[in-house]
Protein 1
Amino acid sequence: MKFYIASSLINYEQVRDLSRLLKNAGWEHTYDWTLHCPVKEINAETLKSIGEKEYEGIKQSDVVIILTPQGRGTHTEFGIAIALNKKVYLCHHDDTYFKCDDNTSTFYWLSQVNQLIGNIENIASELLKL
């Protein structure tokens, strides 16, 4: 199974942990943006290059995992995944985002979006059942 993980830059260690668990089970990470964390040099060319690699990683994936807390680019990645009709797994440590209140988004409720609750190990375990 090919996967891409979208999340906030500050969450890069959890992304690495989840990636490691999935790769240890034989899954393929299509693009690991955490290799650039923390970003040492931010300029237009670097951002463009990373953005193109992230886009290609999403395109090549079978599933896109959204790991909260999300960053400003995460919802863009989420939108790309939806537009490309990817299976999406929105993962949060509790049910905060999955209540019908100000913490949710209408897009969290699309049929191709699956909601997972738990820590990294729980999330990996659920994903590996696919």
Protein 2
Amino acid sequence: MLSKKIEKLLVDQVNAELYSGYLYLHMADFYAEKGLMGFASWFKKQAEEEVEHGLKIRDYLHQENSVLPLAPIAAPEGDFKEPKEPLLLQLAHEKKVTALINVIYKAAREEGDYRTERFLDWFIDEQAEEEENALALIEKFELLGKEGQGLYLLDKELGKRE
């Protein structure tokens, strides 16, 4: 059985993951409005992945016989003007999510909750990948250019994500 502290942290993380999905849909919409359908598709898939993360934590909470009160999801931040802005926000957001996961992991370790620690191992690895991908996308954006042919090529590349 989970402690009340771990349970609350995990419930809050479900909300954070669903917010991430909402944020990435907001980014996808920004790119779609700019006609950058590859970026839009990439961020839509990113949104779906974040919702899956929330559901994975939800399933763990149910497995541990915990109550999962759903809380409102905040409106996404970001009134974007330039195509690079969502990319920078994505990296900052992923670092924030990593910090949240680390807090839960630390609490589980301090409480000797090895089952939750093991469950969170997957999220630790996933967050490393998320931050790496976000940084790589910024680097590609900088390398290929902010407009014209470079932006077109990057948009095409992102549209191939499955």
Protein 3
Amino acid sequence: MAFAPDRRANESPVVSALRRALRHARRCSWGVLALVLAGVLVPAPASAHPFGAPQQIKVAGEGEHGVRVRWLVGGADDLTLLGISLGVLPQDRVLLDGAVSYEASDAETLAGAPKFAKYLTERIIVTQDGRPCEGKASVADDLAADGAEVRFTCPEPVSTVTVTARMLTDLHEAYRTLARGPEGQKAVYDANHESADWTVGDGTDDCSPASTRTVAAVSSRSSALQLSVVGGVLLAVVVAGAFWHRRRGRKA
């Protein structure tokens, strides 16, 4: 009885290594696919929603010593998440699939909570030459539509001040805030860019710092990179699975 020659006996070490790697990939492909899909498709039970409409703030001078910072939320469900984080709203408002059950009364409940007023003055700060300006929060009757405001009184007549904004970045570092001020000044705040200088007294056309002008582009590239990585992993897993099925069909 003749035996067919074993072709693998003359294989180079590189080909043998590739063959072993393919066998390992076939065994692992479906497990990896399950893990990837679970991470991509199943949200965390209490995850925030930072990838929707961004927050906004408007910076303005008010009198000789005053600065006014108005804040508007990006999405109404962010108010619910903030209320849960502050203990103003119950934890059961987050559903099992991670979605948030928003109700119109959430904004009213949060607006009337002293914890929210304290949160505003802790997360929005104005300093003048390194010295803090005293802030007092006020909340609109319709928080979801009209937002909230912190009015600051500074020790000296106001010209240039530093505004720090960290709203919602304690819930998720991906939250961003689009800011604008007098004479067309603009800035973008995020977890890595929390402060910017603003001219509120002399009408300078553009005082937004260079470091904040590029934040939006950097954030967009970061999001695109994350999506491309996830897409590449999924494609690799699908190709490996198809290869495994094809080889299995040939053997059958």
